[in-house]
């Protein structure tokens, strides 16, 4: 898979791996790279079958396969310990990684994720899937921002969105790849296994997320032995893009708080709830 290593390069630098959502491209994390690179070795990558990571995603593809692919990449890079920050699908990859390779994760951040797919999320995914199948790639890409960003941000960033639309159509991951990845995501159900995740995990939600209701993050934190829930009030599903001024300090505080920590033993404490307003 295509990847980039940024930031600190000293032997004892802690590593932060950034895993994107359904789009799969590491470029999603651009608003976080400068901040994280000051403190960590940072790895971004294009997931298999997306972006520069060309390839065919087979039928029957699973979230476990995505976790194994990331573990294989980290093994190639001789990384035996890291923080994983994942957005939506990327966060679900992180949870599967925590279950399959528990010694690998120093901490985990799951942004707008879930234990089991919410009916609202399923409804949005089915609408997007139908657009792709019945109206084509351009219609799918044109509609995508509606699920990611708040209305006022959409209105103020029309030129940016037009450029993004052209880029995404030109670099589309392919209909079959996207549908197989989407099916893997929709099929994932971690409700019976989250008690085995020992890594400290931040479930990070946004109150105005249309695609993934914020309650799914609260539920996720409650199911995790070492889970916490924090919430921004504004920014939509992609609040790391729309409001990095609020998002970035919260992320950095978590990573620094869990720096050099070993995975804690499972406990039964309730998750911490924190709500962050828009600046």
SSE layout and pairings?
Layout: E1 3-7, E2 15-19, H1 30-37, E3 41-45, H2 63-76, E4 82-87, H3 89-100, E5 105-111, H4 119-135, H5 137-148, H6 151-156, H7 158-170, H8 175-187, E6 201-206, H9 215-223, E7 227-232, H10 239-242, H11 244-257, E8 273-276
Task: Explain what you see.
The chain has an eight-stranded mixed β-sheet, sandwiched between helices. The protein is α/β, with parallel strands linked by helices. Strand 2 (15-19), helix 1 (30-37) and strand 3 (41-45) form a beta-alpha-beta unit. Mean pLDDT is 93; it is low at 261-272. The relative contact order is 0.15. The protein has one domain (2-260): 3-Layer(aba) Sandwich (Rossmann fold), CATH 3.40.50. It has helices at residues 30-37, 63-76, 89-100, 119-135, 137-148, 151-156, 158-170, 175-187, 215-223, 239-242, 244-257; strands at residues 3-7, 15-19, 41-45, 82-87, 105-111, 201-206, 227-232, 273-276.
Quick recap of the structure?
The chain is of the alpha/beta class.
CATH structural class: Alpha Beta
The beta-strand count equals 8
Order of helices and strands: EEHEHEHEHHHHHEHEHHE
CA gyration radius, whole angstroms:
17 Å
Fourth-tier CATH superfamily name: Alpha/Beta hydrolase fold, catalytic domain
* Number of structural units classed as domains: 1
Second CATH tier, the architecture: 3-Layer(aba) Sandwich
Instruction: Give the overall average pLDDT.
Output: 93
Give the uncertain stretches in residue-range form.
261-272
Shape descriptor reads globular
Task: Give the strand order of the largest sheet, numbering strands 1, 2, ... along the chain.
Answer: 1-3-2-4-5-6-7-8
Strand content: 15-25%
CATH topology: Rossmann fold
Secondary-structure-based class equals: alpha/beta
Number of helices: 11
Oligomer status: single chain
Q: How does the major sheet shape up?
A: 8 strands, mixed
């Amino acid at each position: 898979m295509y990847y980039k290593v940024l930031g600190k390069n000293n032997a004892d630098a802690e590593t932060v791996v950034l895993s994107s959502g359904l789009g799969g491209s590491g470029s999603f994390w651009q608003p976080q790279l400068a901040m994280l690179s000051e403190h960590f070795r940072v790895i971004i990558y294009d997931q298999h079958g997306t972006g520069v990571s060309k390839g065919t995603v087979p039928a029957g593809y699973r979230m476990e396969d995505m976790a194994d692919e990331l573990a294989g990449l980290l093994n190639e890079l001789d990384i035996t310990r890291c923080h994983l920050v994942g957005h939506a699908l990327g966060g679900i990859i992180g949870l599967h990684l925590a279950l399959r390779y528990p010694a690998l994760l120093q901490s985990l951040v799951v942004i707008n994720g879930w234990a089991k797919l919410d009916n609202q999320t399923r409804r949005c995914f089915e609408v997007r899937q139908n657009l792709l199948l019945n109206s084509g790639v351009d219609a799918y890409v044109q509609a995508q921002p509606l699920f990611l960003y708040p209305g006022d941000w959409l209105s103020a960033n029309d030129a940016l969105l037009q450029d993004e639309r052209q880029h995404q159509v030109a670099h589309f991951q392919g209909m079959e790849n996207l549908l197989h990845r989407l099916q893997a995501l929709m099929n994932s159900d971690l409700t019976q296994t989250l008690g085995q995740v020992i890594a400290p995990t931040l479930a990070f939600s946004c109150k105005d997320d249309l695609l993934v209701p914020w309650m799914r993050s609260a539920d996720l934190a409650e199911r995790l032995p070492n889970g916490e829930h924090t919430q921004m009030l504004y920014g939509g599903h992609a609040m790391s893009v729309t409001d990095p001024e609020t998002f970035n300090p919260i992320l950095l505080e978590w990573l620094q708080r869990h720096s050099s920590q070993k995975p804690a033993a499972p406990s039964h404490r309730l998750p911490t709830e924190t709500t962050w307003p828009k600046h």
